[in-house]
Amino acid sequence: MLEMSHEEFESMVADGLDSLSDDMMEKLDNVIFLVEDRPQDGGDLLAVYEGFSLAERGVYGYGEEPDRIILFRENLLAICETVEELAAEIRISLIHEIAHFYGISEERIHELGWG
After folding, report:
1. Cβ atoms 99, 114 nearer than 8 A
2. 53 φ, ψ to 5°?
3. Cα separation of 64 and 62, whole Å?
4. Listed residue (39, 28, 42) closest to 99, CA to CA
5. What whole-number distance in Å separates Cα of residue 15 and Cα of residue 45?
6. Residue-wise pLDDT tens digits, 45-59
7. Closest CA to 114 of 40, 26, 24
8. pTM for the full model?
9. Separation between Cα atoms, residue 115 and residue 106, nearest integer Å
10. DSSP code of residue 71
11. Residue 72 belongs to what H/E stretch?
C-alpha cells in the first residue's frame, strides 16, 4: 500500500483531470470533484458518481446542487504499489465516473475498456 498525503493525492487527481480529453470534460460544468478518505459505509469503492446522468435530466435549474464525483483516497492507495499505478487507477476511476455522468452503463463502460 502506498502512503501519500491528502494534498499530494489531490494533486494527482488534478493531473488526472488535466489528462482527459476536452470532449470528455465538455459538459461537466456543474460537476464537482472531491477526495474523501473512504466511503461512509467503509466499503471498498474506489470512486462514486452522485447525481443524475445527462440521460436522466434536462437542464439544470436555478439553485440545484452540483453533481459530485468522489474519489476515495485510502481505497485507491490500498490497491496500488507504485505512484505510476496510482496515477493509472485515478485516471480509470475518473473516466469511469464521468461515463456515469454521461449515462453510460456499467456494462458499456466495461465493453469500451474504461473500467
Report:
1. yes
2. -65, 160
3. 6
4. 28
5. 21
6. 999 999 988 877 766
7. 24
8. 0.89
9. 8
10. E
11. strand 67-72
